[in-house]
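Dear colleagues,

For the upcoming journal club I promised to circulate an example of a predicted protein-ligand complex. I picked one with zinc ion because it came up in last month's discussion. The inputs are reproduced below in full, followed by the predicted structure.
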Amino acid sequence: MQRHEDNGVVLLCDFCHSEWDQVKPMIEGHHGSIICLDCLKQARAGSHGGLVPFKCSMCLREPLPTKMLHWEKNGAIICGDCIKQAAKAFAKDPDTDFTDD
Ligand SMILES: [Zn+2]
Ligand SMILES: [Zn+2]
């Protein structure tokens, strides 16, 4: 997500709300939603099916089926497809030690 400040725009992870410092690995979704590597790791470890259909904050698809894996934090939700995509992208990023296994 973006936060507008007097001296410009600050990019924030939609899930943990940490600010992008130009160094921390982060990936942008289709519509300006952002997930950082720390959250992606948590999402991979903690994703699960839910009780109600949901909307993914990264790809904005809705309603996604209840049983589809997803992960939620601070009201933002990432679906299983976006978790996979983000993991691939982080694994390709030479600045991270992340591997998509
Ligand atoms: Zn985060
Ligand atoms: Zn998604």
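Two points we might discuss: The chain has a mean pLDDT of 94. The longest helix spans residues 80-92.

See you all on Thursday,
B. R.
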